[in-house]
Amino acid sequence: MLSALKNRTGEGGPGRRPGRRAARRVLLAALAVLLLFLLRYPILRGMGNYLITEDPATRVDAVFVLGGSVLDRGVEAARVYRQGLADRFIFTGAPVPQVLEALGIDSTEAECTRHAAVLAGLPPELATVMNVGTSTYEEFQALLAYAKAEGLDSVMVISSCFHLRRIGRVFRKPFRQAGITVVLHGAPSSVYDESRWWASEEGLIMVNNEYVKLGYYLLKY
Fold first, then answer.
1. Domain span including residue 27
2. Looking at the structure, do residues 25 and 131 belong to the same domain, yes or no?
3. Does some domain include residue 167?
4. Is the pLDDT of residue 5 over 50?
């Protein structure tokens, strides 16, 4: 009689189990959120580090400086020259930066990056402009043709640090098949710290965009 009464009133019977399961799920979810919060900095840092696949610096036949982030990549090209790693530098990038276009200046990304490199100490006679490429893939196609025509055995590709994984996926295999070694080299940003990219708007935009582009390139190429 007592057992039947408990079952009818919900005390001690199966009716309490769904409530316990729901409470357990809420507790586990709360613990997961807490764990993610406590580990947020290592996770964010790992997301950035995954994109940076830089190779050890070594001497090469030529350095390819891709378009975009003209100041950072130009300065890094000059630094590579001062380290004695190359004496031939090719700058790519066909678009004219919008800020220059608004001023009526038609200098391309390639020309702007070369200018920044020369100001930073790269001898102008070592710097060649190729006004080609509106995307990484278009630059890759032009540079592979150039490397084959020039009989190059090794090249360094300079781009922003967070671009390197995607660039490696585009460049490495076709260049290797052509017998050309590719060395990836990152140009540190002057507007955010790569080790704390989430602390600035520019860093957040860069990493977010790069993961989107990485997925796009994986699907398209």
1. 2-36
2. no
3. yes
4. no
The answer to whether residues 156 and 60 touch, using CB atoms and an 8 Å cutoff, is yes
**Inter-residue contact 175 to 143 (CB < 8 Å):** no
Q: Which helix (H) or strand (E) holds 159?
A: strand 154-160
Q: Who contacts 30 (Cβ-Cβ below 8 Å, separation ≥6)?
A: none
In a domain, 45, yes or no: no
For the record, the structure tokens of 87 come out as: 């004496």
SS3 for 182? Answer: strand
Instruction: List the structure tokens of 119.
Output: 């100001």
pLDDT at 145: 98
Question: How far, in Å, CA of 68 to CA of 50, rounded?
Answer: 21
**With 90 as the cut, is the pLDDT of residue 51 above it?**
yes
- Structural domain count, the chain: 2
As a whole number of angstroms, the distance between CA 47 and CA 55 comes to 18
Residue in 175, 177, 140, 132 with CA at minimum distance from that of residue 154: 175
In whole angstroms, what is the distance from residue 152 CA to residue 64 CA? 12
Residue 195 inside a domain? The answer is yes
Q: Are 153 and 146 in contact (CB under 8 A)?
A: no
